[in-house]
Amino acid sequence: MEVVNTLVLAVLATGFLMVSRRSLDAVIRLYALQNVLLALVSFGLAKGELHFVLAGLALFVLKGVAIPWYLFWLLDRLEVSHEVEGYLSVSFSLLLAGLLTALAFRVGAVFVLPEAPLPQGVPVALSLVLLGMLSMVSRKKAISQVLGFLALENGVFLLALSESHGLPLFVELGVALDAFAAVFLAGVLIFRIKGEMGHVDTARMRALRG
Prior knowledge:
This protein is mainly α and 210 residues long.
C-alpha cells in the first residue's frame, strides 16, 4: 500500500505541473504520465481482482496513449502556437493551485466513506478536480481547456478508486470510451472553429457577443 500512496502523490505532482507549464506539448505529456500513474494505482489495488487490471489496461491504452497521440496530431494539424496562453501568471496560478489543494486536503476527510480502500486518495482526487477546473477557467485556447477537463475527469476516476472497490468494469470502460469520444468531438469542433475564425482563442470569441 505504501507504493500505491507514493503513486497517488506522484499523480498530484503531475496535476500541479500541468497547471504551471506553458507548453502544450509538456502538458499533454504530463497528462499521459498522469494516466499511466493512475493505471499503476489501479493495478496496485487489484489484489487478484481482474476488473481492476482490465480497467487499468483500458486507462493505459485509451487515456495514456490514444488520447495524447490524438492531441499531438491535432496540434500539428491546427498549425497554432504550442504556447499555453492564460489569464494568470505562472506564479499566481501556482498560488491558487496550492490554495485549492490545501482546501481539498482540509475538507477531504469529510468525503471519505467507511471502509474506503484508499482514503489517502480522496483529497488528491478532489485536488485534481479543482486543478482541472482552474485550468479550464484560466486558459484561453480551446485545446488547453480540453486538457483541463480531462484532468478533472481523472480526479473523478481516482475518487471512484479511492472510495469504493472499483466501479463495475463496463462502467469504467464506458467512462474511458466517453472521454475518448468527448476529446474526438472536441477536436472536430476545434477544427471548425479554426476554419471559421482562423484561431482557437476563446478569449477573442467573447468579443463577438452582442
